[in-house]
Amino acid sequence: MYMLIYLNLKERVNLMTKGLTIGLAALLMVGSISPTVLAAEVNKAPINVVADSNSKKKEENERFVERVSVNELTLEEAIRYGTNSSYSLMELELTLESLKENEDKYDDLYDSAESSLESAQKQKAELEKQLEEATSPDSASITSPDSISINLNEELNNLIKSLDELNIQPSDIEVGVSASDVSNGLDSTVNYLLQFLNSTKEYLKVFEKYQQNQLLQEKLNLVNSQITTLSSTISTLEATLNQYDLSRTQTFNNRVIQRESMEVSITSSFLGLMQTQAQIDFMKDSLSTQQSQVNAAKVKYELGFISLNDYEDSKRDLKDLETEIAQLERQLNNDKATFALTIGITYNEDYTLVKPDLGQLALVEQLTSTEELIHNSYNMVNARTALQQAEDRLDDLEDLVENRRKQDEDIAEIDVDIAKLKIESLEAELEKSIKNQFYQVRHQYQELIKLSEDLEVAQKDNEEYKTRFELGLISKLDYDSTNLTVKQAELKYNIAKYQYYLLTKKVELIEDGVIPTN
Q1: Is the full-model pTM beyond 0.70?
Q2: Residue 354 has what DSSP assignment?
């Protein structure tokens, strides 16, 4: 029984010194918990999965993103397609799942370690109790078997000497002795022999106690070694779990930042395409007016009112406008193809962009203090998380009893100072970004108001020119020119409206905790 227990304890101590390597956010060496748990980890052999060719082809053909074909595309649909087909977002989600699975795994190992430590501590208490009872004053004790062995040899020598004096061989001694054979000398020898036998029994009793005490002490030493190993393992697992928790926090925050930023980026690209399309539409409207001007210039030239150069200039203006329209259309098609690939839709054929309804745009004011916006931002949460990691590493080094080196502590202290410096630098950068963002909002809103007023003026002028045209006071060419002025004012106003809307989305990002930085 003792040998079996000893081997099990020894095996447990040896096995528990081995480690498991984990990856991703932190590659930490972690001790296993018990022979059973460790065997499941260390002895785990690679699994060779044999699949038929059809299964392999099916797996190879599976895709994470299946592109869809659309005829029309709204801003809301573009954001949904883009965020759902983002490979980087998918990777972050899978990373979060992996971190969660690993955290659950090491949480189970931590529970097993705590349970093993509790059992070992109970076993230690029981062994100490047994050892205390065995060495109490009321019980027989012996410090070394050698002292008893010396007494035994002395007793044996005395016995043999007495037998020699009586001329008795030890092999001739029998259990029974008749009364007629008893003499004073033989009686003394027999008494001495009985005393020796009693001493031998006492020796065996005490020696057995000694062996039991030694066994208890060895068990206790092994349990103490196990407790030390388990305590170290638990500390390592605690650090690992903390690392996983911090990594999950950072990954989750990065995912939120990337998703929210992606929505604004998609909005910006979509509105950019809308602006290009609006510009092309305006230029096509200008094309008919420009053609009318060329026709009028031709008549004036034929009548001798203008020179040939003036007529040629009007034709060149028309040609340049046609060339510019063709270039913008090619650029728009290329940008729409790129945008389609970005958001995960096909571009086999052209698709129509649906003009978004932006509604009435009001001035966005800063209602939350800059300090609170910075403190609650994901940017600052990640920075504080990095500081916590650095401080935890320093605490771990300071808690070390063995293998503690001053140089390692100095490096850890420098890392803490660097993390604090980054927080201070980030605060300044975020404050600058917030102030600049709200300044742009106010500036763009004033520009929007101005362009809205310009549009109203152009519309009123157009009404006046319309009346004059109907009365025959101006030509159709002059009236078409005023119409073009209204369309140009509408184009400028709509572009400014798109730009202001995009700025309000960036402000929403800030309020949601995602502050753009350079």
Answers
A1: no
A2: P
